[in-house]
Fold these 4 entries.
Entry 1:
Amino acid sequence: MRWAVVSDIHGNLPALEAVIADAADVDGWLNLGDILSGPLWPRETAHFLMQQDWPTIAGNHERQLLTLARDRMGPTDAFTIDTLTPAQVRWLAALPPTMAPAAGLLCVHGAPGKDLQYLLETVTPQGVRAATADEIGQRLGGVRSPLLLCGHTHVPRDVALDPMRIVNPGSVGLQAYDDGHPWPHLIENGSPRARYALIENANGAWQVTLREVDYDHEAAARRAEGNGRGDWADALRTGRVGRTEADVRPASRPAPG
């Protein structure tokens, strides 16, 4: 069985379509959450994915969309919830927080049991760095699996931590962002290309390939700009943080179309 693994699509349907074209002949797909939230095409992305019926888990943004009052949401989730149909919200509500689609394979969004916890990165007052083996082990708790798939940080990683292998496929939809928790930091992949992973179990050993795919990121950036999110536009164009969320005044309603 050969799977394509996607995470952190964030409503970027053109990026997802490019990933699908690149993966071509895979046997199946796995989706690690943070699916819709963003100033792009959340409703259209939900419509597309509901037709695919891929094995999918919820990320922190799905939880936030479902549990926070509209006036307590951040601008990204507030924009998104305003676009979704009741059926799409019900689809999100049915997603599990974890899944084990095959023997020896476990999927989570952040760290096990904590969808906001970075698993493979550590944030310090000086910025973000790769987590140490001890830090990863502490975040795993007692969870063990030959292959564990995670997302959330948007950073493609393939880490060996005996007896485990931990893979983050990176983000399909957004290659840079700024965040303030637990300290201010930037995530930057350095290019606008969409990221995903290919995995396959060959003779009992997991084979992993991290992939990058070009797509029309300028169209996505223009969409974000038109919806008042210059910070997303900069990140979509470059894979680096330019303007930050604090620098822009997000629109309350999506652009038509």
Note: Helices lie at 13-23, 42-52, 60-67, 75-81, 86-93, 133-140, 217-226, 230-238.
Entry 2:
Amino acid sequence: MMRKSRLFRPDNPHFLFNAINTIISYTRTSPQIASIFSWKLADFFRSNINPGSENVPFARELEHCEAYIGIEKARFEDRITVIYNIAPDVLDCKLPPLILQPLSENALKHGILPKETDGEIIIGAHRVNGFVRIYVRDNGWGCLPAQLNSLFF
């Protein structure tokens, strides 16, 4: 079964347009940075268009996530700090493709962007009791208890 990112729905082109506008802006002020972000965008879309159906190493998922975050950091600059807390021994563990980036996107969109400053996302992965624990945390304002309760019922 192939997963498709929500980014490719015809009714949700915002990420693509925002990324392209950011790159265009940097072509005027810093062509070298525009070039770097163009490559990140290309890598990001290459992974999204054909993720495959096989499980991939965590390291590959992390690269995909880093490409996405790099593009968003170009847009929001100092509003976002990303901390990676990844144990080296989990980089080769296998997981379904397109798992980590949507979690990071959610943390950014719903946790960080409503804040004016000091947005922080922590992406972590460690082995715990024979399993790999992967998490994405943000320092956003959180949900109201009623919203949180409605997520699972």
Note: The CA atoms of residues 85 and 124 lie 4 Å apart.
Entry 3:
Amino acid sequence: MAITIAELAKALDAEFAGDGGLSLEGAAPPAEAGPQQIALAMDKSYLLELCLGKARAAAVPIGTNWQDYDLDAVIFVQRPRLAMAGITANFDVAPMIAPGIHKSAVIDPSAEIAPDVRIGALCVIGANVRIAGGAILMPQVTIADDAEIGQDAMIYSGVRIGTRVRIGTRAIIHYNAVVGSDGFSFVTPEKSAVEEARASLGKAVSARPQSYLRIASNAAVAIGNDVEIGACSTIDKGTISDTKVGDGTKIDNHVQVGHNVQIGRDCLLCAHAAVAGSSVLGDRVVLGGQAGVGDHLTLGDDVIAAGATAILSNVPKGRIMMGYPAVRMEQNIETYKALRRLPRLMERFRKLEGLIANNEEKP
């Protein structure tokens, strides 16, 4: 989709200079940009690369003397990453399918589907499902009985949505995600070895061999508005109360959210993060890649966990955590520094030990 410099600047709420009528069809790095693309030179370090490409327009830092770079027009950018969001949104081409319902889709007669919903090939829609207007289901989506899909939701191919799951408005669920799988919840007739080990903090256990009995997941999953769920991520149903994901939360690829988990608003869960059953995350919590949260824990609002952090206890609001086990970031950094010093300290210790031994041997 083509857009002029003036139109793009207005969409970004930014100032422009030069030929406002210059038409653009995309964006590219400065060294690769062509005449119909805007070069993304929003950091001063990229300005020199403009001479390597063929761009006639660029997004540049405020105050740039743009005439030095043989350009016809520029947009002045204050916050590069925010501008990137706006620029990419204006050139985004979302996957699209033909209007209506594909003839190969299998839809239960009791399903309620708004007239403008698009449903791709080989989708399966269960009994009493409700799909609101503007929703798009790409091919091979499965929606189980009694589920609800909100207005303008975008469901990519291969997604599986379980029974009674509720998806909010403008939700985006990427390829092969599963929302509403059963929780991983089992129990033994008597206390298991795991329960005894946990209660005794690792002391010897006396539990006898016994089989696991399944605890059914009788609740569902409630996904808020403007939530995005990445490819191959899974969110388990609750046991007797719903697993919940708050408005505006973004979940990356390959993330696991366990049964009964409660996630607040505007959280970020990066790739390979995992939240064990019945834990509660406040608003604006960030879990870095591969971060893990143990079961039945509470993380307060605005907690940030660095990548690979293992959270094994409750975390108060506003705290920044790092390491395994998780501690405050500044404490983890000091611990790491001390760990790196250990070989030198041990060498000094051995030398001191030798000196003391030699002195003790002397008459």
Note: Helices lie at 5-12, 80-91, 193-200, 329-361.
Entry 4:
Amino acid sequence: MNKLALFFIFVSSIELLGREVQQSTFSYWNKPDINIFYSLPTSINENTKILFIMHGVSRSAERYINDWLPLAEQRNVVLIAPEFSKEFFPEYVYLMKTNSKGKKLKDVSLHLDDSLGLLFDFFKSKLNISTLNFRLYGHSGGSQFVHRYLLLSEETRVEKAAMANAGFYTFANQTIGFPFGIKNMNVSNERIKWFLNLKGGIFLGDADNDPKHHSLPAMRKANKQGKHRFERGTNFFNDLVNLGVESKMPFRWRYQTVPDVAHENPAMSLAASSFLLEDL
């Protein structure tokens, strides 16, 4: 067999062994259809897990899931990246409940605080997966979506969640209006207790510290959280620590900085994968 044939067989083997991304349209709800990008492990069994990957304001769900393909290559996990279009879900980072100024949106049917639970049920059924819970990752705008979903939804089947480089945060503070706090958002003490007890993680690139970054939210109340993403994330985590101490509630979150990394999803995905995929 000549060298060219050997090379062809080798390359073909890599392609056959590598993960693929599939695309589908999800329409099994009372909201506009959304595109779903997903990738399956080699086989589905009783230990297979589901990880949702939430895109940022670029809405580039396919790029986000592609960043995770090499990280999940030998892992028993289904990757799912929903894409919330700007046309139908312009304020997805606020779960379509308000805009950035806190003004409530009229169409409550578009609220996204049930979205991941519905997608989880759909893929469990579609793929015949037996897992009882799922995991979450979000970067930038996706990180904003994830922590607000954890606070404001009624979903309790989240096993782990990693939030990376959010532009700003919704603090678990009943005196500050949404989306900067949870005033008038009907978040119960039981939900806050569940939120603090979750296996959550704040992941921050220590070079994501540009106060003039082109996509950094610059509203007055966002600026009060810190000068840049790194400072805002640190302040949010410290506030959760204090809340746990003051309320005497168990607190299980982790805080991790990623050296020399700015606002970069691939590097943040790599850091978060050690947490989200460590047991798979």
Note: The chain has one domain: 21-276.
